[in-house]
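[09:14] KT: can someone run the structure on this one? pasting the chain below
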Amino acid sequence: MLIIGIAGGTGSGKTTVVRKIVESLPAGEVVLLPLDSYYKDNAGIPLAERQRINFDHPDAFDWDLLSLHVDMLRAGKSIEQPVYSYLTCTRQPETVHIEPRDVVIIEGILTLGDVRLRGMMDLKVYVDADPDERLIRVIQRDMLERGRTAEAVMERYIRVLKPMHQQFIEPCKRYADLIVPQGGNNQVAIGILTMYIKRHLK
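[09:31] RB: done, structure tokens below
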């Protein structure tokens, strides 16, 4: 089994990189573990407090559960991946059943931020992008998918995303085996990644 961690800032193009890798591989070869699925369950906290949680801080994630699930997949066992709701900031009752596969990709802003998780990875990747490009993508995504105004997105970017990126996400670069500049537009780097995985599968 090949375990790959893909990290990078919000709006850097991580999801695009992962999608292009998965599309280039045979169907059913890859299991994707999005870090966003492993936010802590905040059901016991009042809604007003939940909405103030800093979701870009390492403390927001259930690292123990994610590490356990990676261990189980490595041991050939299936897992029940959590489903997280951004609307209620809670873990949902339903789960996603996942069987072990030859390739496991863990993807998220702080995927390389946990020392135990890093120790399980065969390949660590950091997707990099210009801060201005990331901000534009975040504004477009949050307005389109989350119904936020441009002003609200920019306020949150200055207040939360930028300082958290500088404090926790950007330093993860030093753990990466491969840095992918220009995010999902870097066809050469995505090609190298895909070749590495295909060679392992053979």
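[09:33] KT: thanks! The two ends are 12 Å apart (CA to CA).
[09:34] RB: yep, looked fine to me
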